[in-house]
Amino acid sequence: MSAFGQALSELGSVLDDIRPGDIEHAVEMIAEAGVIVGYGCGREGLQVQGLVMRLHHLGLSASMQGAMNTPPLGPGDLFLCSAGPGELSTVTALMTIARKAGARILFLTAEPECDAARMADHVLTVPAQTMARDIGGSSVLPMGSVYEGALFVLFEIMVLELKQRLGETSESMRARHTNME
Prior knowledge:
Blueprint: H1 3-16, H2 20-32, E1 35-40, H3 42-57, E2 61-64, E3 78-82, H4 89-101, E4 104-109, E5 122-125, H5 145-166, H6 170-175
């Protein structure tokens, strides 16, 4: 099998192992939130950033933590964060702030038994190899790439479900896309 075939097979296996009910619950949390703030460290943060952009295209109030225009979180809002390896001090600190503000927390991780997961209202487990378990791992992709790749596909499927749930169209989404490119 080629490296492409092996990588796609690994991603497919991870995505097949995500529980559909967990995805549905995450979609529901996003659809019901007043304000959504996303956060992730490193490359998984880039995947979260892509999701936040799509949530904006869907007409939701969504931004990334750290952007100058990020609004405060409070009751009825959602902190959507990812920490593939489980414990990342920045993610845990931000979860604590969001919780104190009254926001709900949607936590994505490959390590659902970590302390940070116990702080979340909902844990969406993405059972992929991350840097937490990449030593001697069997993945053809380096470090946490399987987790990050799975996030991309998972988020696009979640966007499709949100699009239908919110009654959005490709045209309405496109109308919210920047014209400054």
